[in-house]
Amino acid sequence: MKRYRQFEPVLVSEFKAAEWTHPEHNHNHYEFIFIVRGRGVHVINGHTVPYQSGAVFFIGPEEYHYFEIEQETHFIYLKFTDAYSHRYAADSGVLTRQLEYLVKSRETHQHGFPLLAADLLTVHLLFQVVASLKHDAFANQDLIWYQLLGITTILVRNMPELQTDGSRSRDLQAMFCYIHKNIYTPNLLKSQVMAPHFNISPDYLGTYFKRQVGMTIRAYILRYRNTLIRQRIAAGRMILKEIADEFGLTDVSHLSKILQKDHGA
Fold first, then answer.
1. Protein fold of 172-264
2. In a 10 Å sphere around its CB, with 0-12 CB exposed, 13-18 middle and 19+ buried, how is residue 2 labelled?
3. Where does the record place the HTH araC/xylS-type domain (predicted)?
């Protein structure tokens, strides 16, 4: 399978195509893809997703995809690397958490983001702003970052959410959504707290998750949290005390023990 590599922190491209010329591929960066006009099929990780004007997709590293164009399609691509997102992570706070949440929710990537009319209009305008900055993405990377966060915020609030009544789904995606949203609040990730949100018992929650994912829910939470922590450390923009506080850990020594245990595993 072909792999595309991007070395620039952020790139923007806008083009029209009547035929898709790229093979099935993956890459080392992230991609927001907006369909301004057109119709066809987007194949993501083997899943076939019909698209039309206004469709939005998000593709992460290692995911593979290609398009089958049925009607000439106008694309806007916003492509960025980990280095780009980490550069702004400490300064963007909660909004960066939204991006991390979106990045991790791979299951959602495979289905696209159906948007309500008002959100679709806003996303369209944000992508138009992004496209207007494509002539010099490097000089405009600060401006592009704010548009990226705006797009992310809208996509996240259109992702599958937990229901508010007794009909809450036990669907795995809803569990991922809950974990990713509450990763900064350890008390909300205890089985006895999570289970009522899915209208099931704590014991069944653990059994169901392990059967579907192949690891315990605690192991998944620890792996996800430790990945985010290591990203914070690698970015070099936060001291360990700040990272520990962000994730609700008692102190820096607690953080160090987590990383040592994770490294030893």
1. Arc Repressor Mutant, subunit A (1.10.10)
2. exposed
3. 173-265
